[in-house]
Please model this.
Amino acid sequence: MELKLTRCLIRPWQLGDAAALAQHANNRKIWRNVRDRFPHPYTLADAEAWIAFAGAQDPCTNFAIVVAGEAGGGIGFVLKDDVDRRSAELGYWLGEAFWGRGIVSEAVTAMTAYLFDNFDLCRIQATVFEWNKASMRVLEKAGYACEARLRCSATKDGQTIDDFIYAVVRLDRILSPHAEAPKVQ
Model:
């Protein structure tokens, strides 16, 4: 899968992305807003291991966000199972050098459309730490609604904080779309 968008390209990770991945991911501001399995410091060995893991997935569920030819972030999803088998969880991050340009909003909107178009999903959700207001705005721009505040749900960076659950449901997008799908080039 490859999505050519106005501000970025979403494509599978490639071995040649390792140096850029390590450079952009090795940032405490990014680490503070993702789950602990995302290491800090983030080394070249971490990047190579991640790219090998992502490349072995079938179907591919983790992708590079490429800006001006450089892998500057990542976006991916987890397909749920059992009674939640028609749901997915979305996650993403972008290197600080690319913040404030609308890149992640475009990527999240495009990935959401891709998921609904290619998988038998009813629901896509994302979890956001209470201090990550920028990510909350990204999700709202992409048509997600805040459904829940999970009090004292996560412990990150030595603090126990609230998680916010944002979600979009296929039926809502059909009846009253919140976000326009980006133009795929």
